[in-house]
Design brief:
The complex is a heterodimer of chains A (160) and B (290). Chain A is an alpha+beta fold and 160 residues long. Chain A has helices at 2-31, 37-58, and strands at 61-62, 67-71, 77-83, 89-95, 102-107, 117-121, 124-129, 135-143, 151-159. Chain A contains two helices and nine strands. The N and C termini of chain A lie far apart (85 Å). Classes of the chains: A alpha+beta (160), B mainly alpha (290).
Chain lengths: 160, 290
């Protein structure tokens, strides 16, 4: 009976230890940066490559500025961009990961989703837009349902 | 006695064991729950306002360049860009915030000269920008970019020249912020857009446009300018010209917001003319000798 009691105590101690270890690990994971420097570098170089190739191939003019940031599991990112009717726009997004885990869509000032021509390859997305009205359009970035790993994105646009 | 002790032990030990097992289950089970989370539907209107505000990221990218509005204007009408040139100032601007506004207007005039494919005018403007950047203490930092801009213009490489001009503006803005002159950076940007709206409203005023709001650069743009004015330091806020600019631009914003409220309202040249007059008044006030 005494041995059985010791065994029970050992088992309890073991389970409690595992629970504590697991909690510490979770806490560490939560505080550690999800986005590495390598991911940022990859996203930036992807965006620059895209920008140069679109500008060279389609006579598009580049902007000298970018948005960059994390695209997380729960939060979506909405970037307001001022588009003018009559111009053609290409929105270019470079990602920090090779797989294409981000869904990008564009909405007009009234909140209507725009028909877009998308070109998606490994970790990069291009959208061609022809706005029907001038005003603030919203580019919406969110992780695909199939992906739960946050990534890093660098976005810019070109116009002609 | 011994049985009682055993019973007490198990009475405490078993619930503790159950609690510990539940704790482990909860820690490991967190991941499986995930995608039932708040993934929002794809239509923008369905985002609750409080979530919407949290998701919106304002960036420098949110403010377009004057070249974009000029491109859009050129697609709707045949614009005689050279007729829109502005003469150099006949007086000097010792006030640094006025000099910043003037540099802003000259940057926009640079885009205008590029639309006209006028390399000589680009060179004249870059000289003017360089001269006034001395007033702001930026001449040394600005010069290399000005040289590149002139080189692109001389080679008639307009895409490159436009890119250099935007880069010049970003660089000057960054340098001013680094020198703790955030106000001057904002004033330069205000100058860029006041001049762009002055030009746009001049072009729209003289033609039939199906989308007249373009003369105000879209509703949001004027509000962005008003936000910039609100961000100025307290000292500058007290300035008479800032007060006046806020009043005039506030009125312009209200004119074009009416389109949103009334939905599909057709504007006349009167609204465009009013926009032009108010923007021109603000510019004149900023660049006056006083």
């Amino acid at each position: 009976m005494k041995h059985f009691r010791i065994l029970t105590l050992l088992l309890m101690a073991g389970v409690l230890y595992c629970a504590a270890q697991d909690a510490v690990k979770k806490k560490e994971e939560a505080t550690a940066p999800v986005v590495s420097a390598e991911m940022k570098f990859r996203a930036r170089s992807c965006a620059y490559d895209l920008e140069y190739s679109v500008s060279a191939a389609g006579n598009f003019k580049r902007r000298d500025t970018y948005w960059e940031g994390e695209i997380g599991e729960i939060d979506i990112v909405l970037i307001p961009l001022q588009f003018f009717k009559g111009n053609d726009y290409v929105v270019a997004l470079g990602l920090g990961t090779k797989e294409n885990s981000v869904l990008m869509s564009v909405f007009d000032p009234a909140g209507k989703r725009l028909p877009i021509v998308a070109d998606e390859q490994e970790g990069r997305v291009l959208l061609a837009i022809k706005p029907e009205v001038s005003g603030a359009h919203y580019v919406r970035l969110e992780l695909r349902k199939t992906s739960s790993v946050p990534t890093y994105g660098v976005l810019t646009y070109l116009y002609r | 006695m011994r049985h009682a002790k055993d019973s007490l032990f198990y009475l405490v030990a078993i619930p503790l064991l159950v609690i510990a097992l539940m704790a482990v289950g909860q820690e490991t089970g967190e991941d499986t729950d995930d995608d039932k989370e708040v993934r929002l539907p794809p239509v923008l209107q369905d985002i609750p306002p409080e979530v919407f505000a949290k998701c919106v990221v304002e960036t420098d990218l949110s403010l377009p360049t004057p070249a974009e509005i000029f491109d859009a204007l050129a697609k709707q009408t045949n614009v005689r860009w050279r007729s829109l040139y502005r003469d150099p100032l006949t007086h000097s601007l010792a006030d640094r915030s006025k000099a910043a506004v003037w540099i802003g207007t000259r940057i926009t005039d640079g885009y205008l000269a590029m639309e006209a494919r006028d390399a000589q005018h680009v060179r004249n403007l870059s000289k003017d920008i360089l001269a006034y950047s001395r007033v702001l203490g930026l001449a040394e930092k600005t010069e290399p970019r000005i040289i590149r801009l002139d080189t692109f213009a001389e080679a008639q490489s307009w895409a490159g020249a436009r890119f250099e001009l935007e880069a010049l503006q970003s660089e000057m803005s960054l340098n001013l912020r680094e020198m703790r002159d955030k106000d001057l950076a904002e004033m330069m940007l205000v100058g860029v857009w006041l001049r762009a709206l002055e030009i746009a409203s001049m072009v729209v005023d003289s033609k039939d446009f199906d989308e007249m709001v373009i003369c105000a650069g879209g509703i949001r743009l004027v509000d962005q300018l008003l936000d910039r004015l609100d961000d100025l330091s307290e000292n500058l806020q007290k300035d008479e010209s800032i007060e006046m600019a806020r009043r005039q631009l506030g009125r312009v914003s209200r004119i074009w917001k009416a389109e949103k409220v009334l939905g599909g309202r057709v504007f006349t040249n009167d609204e465009v003319k009013e926009t032009h007059d108010r923007v021109t008044n603000v510019l004149q006030m900023f660049l006056s000798q006083r």
